[in-house]
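A.,

Following up on our hallway conversation. Structure tokens first:
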């Protein structure tokens, strides 16, 4: 498929809008591609009736949309989404947009451009209906797929004044909501050693790679005693076999189901000390999403959403999820939060990614009903 470098015309129907957004590939970190997609999303949000603004970020601009309240006082409903994807530019060549029956394919259709389309269509419907509703706010993040390193503060500040947070990430298989998430942290251990000739004067050096290995074993020992997922994702260091390595680092992926376990492991990382004389060891967090443990707030919100869904003929359950997203941040704050309100489908981050066309229609109906009805119970 020919690469799209300019904004295609956007159709008035949701599936046509999804096609337009999909043809504008938007990988995390590609600021030019993200800017092109943002240039299409903002007019769509304004057409739906929302005011638009941006928060500049080094990884791309975060989009802030707001719909003023109509006849309902109190805090706003906050929607969270993102417009970056895991797919590099050019993926459309081998993974093209297609529609076969109910199955819609293309990079990012499920995670989570269909969620954005559903929100835009739902808000447009609510505005046209004239029904009362609270203020609606939306934060559409530019770097969610890499841990939202530049969006975390924005998400926190918006959530602190919200009556509830509704995440537009993909749902559980079949469409159920997500009512909690594992904590997710990317951390780097950095070691500085002392270089020397590996044969002529090895004792004058301090091998950073050897020190890093021992540090990794120590962190693994701490994590092994807890229900923590630890993955050493990358290891780099040294340069030549005849030089004692002077630098090395490793990037870790950590997942937590409990805040106490999270504090224990992150505390161990912060307190690393060298094993070898003259070695220096440091650690830092590359991204951090705190553990969002299912609580009364999330369960109560999920029950309200399920009740509204039942009122329009939809059946909806909810349970915690292993994956992380920006709702980790809001749920950990204690703000009533649910996620998984994007249309159902499958294959997130996989070559067979797909989303349901009928599910898109169902989620538009549900989101519109939530905007006009959720304030009665939350």
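Then the amino acids I'd put at each of the 378 positions:
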């Amino acid at each position: 498929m020919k690469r799209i470098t300019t904004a295609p015309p956007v159709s008035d129907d949701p599936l046509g809008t999804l096609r337009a957004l999909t043809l504008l590939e938007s990988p995390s970190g590609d600021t030019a591609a993200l800017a092109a997609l943002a240039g299409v999303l903002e007019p769509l949000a304004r057409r739906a009736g929302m005011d638009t603004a941006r928060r500049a970020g080094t990884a791309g601009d975060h989009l802030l949309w707001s719909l003023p309240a109509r006849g309902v006082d109190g805090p706003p409903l906050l929607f969270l989404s993102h417009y970056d994807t895991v797919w590099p530019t050019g993926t459309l060549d081998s993974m093209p947009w297609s529609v076969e029956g109910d199955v819609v394919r293309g990079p990012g259709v499920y995670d989570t451009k269909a969620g954005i389309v559903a929100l835009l269509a739902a808000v447009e419907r609510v505005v046209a209906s004239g029904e009362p509703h609270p203020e609606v706010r939306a934060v559409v993040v530019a770097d969610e797929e890499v841990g939202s390193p530049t969006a975390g503060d924005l998400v926190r500040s918006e959530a602190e004044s919200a009556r509830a947070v509704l995440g537009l990430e993909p749902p559980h298989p079949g469409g159920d909501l997500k009512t909690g998430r594992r904590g997710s942290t990317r951390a780097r251990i950095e070691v500085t050693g002392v270089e020397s000739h590996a044969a002529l004067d090895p004792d004058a050096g301090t091998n950073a790679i050897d020190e890093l290995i021992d540090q990794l074993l120590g962190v693994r020992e701490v994590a092994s005693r807890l229900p923590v997922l630890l993955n050493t994702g990358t290891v780099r260091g040294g340069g030549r076999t005849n030089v004692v390595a002077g630098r090395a680092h490793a990037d870790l992926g950590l997942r937590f189901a409990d805040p106490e376990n999270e504090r224990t492991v992150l505390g161990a990382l912060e307190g690393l000390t060298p094993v070898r004389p003259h070695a220096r060891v440091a650690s830092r967090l590359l991204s951090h999403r705190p553990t969002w443990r299912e609580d009364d707030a999330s369960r109560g919100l999920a029950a309200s959403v399920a009740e509204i869904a039942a009122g329009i003929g939809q059946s909806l359950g909810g349970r915690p999820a292993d994956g992380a997203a920006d709702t980790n941040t809001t749920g950990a704050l204690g703000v009533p939060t649910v996620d998984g309100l994007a249309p159902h489908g499958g294959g997130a981050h996989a070559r067979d990614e797909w989303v349901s066309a009928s599910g898109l229609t169902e989620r538009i109906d549900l989101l519109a009903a939530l905007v006009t009805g959720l304030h009665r119970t939350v």
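DSSP finds nine helices and 16 strands in the chain. Curious whether your intuition agrees with the design.

B.
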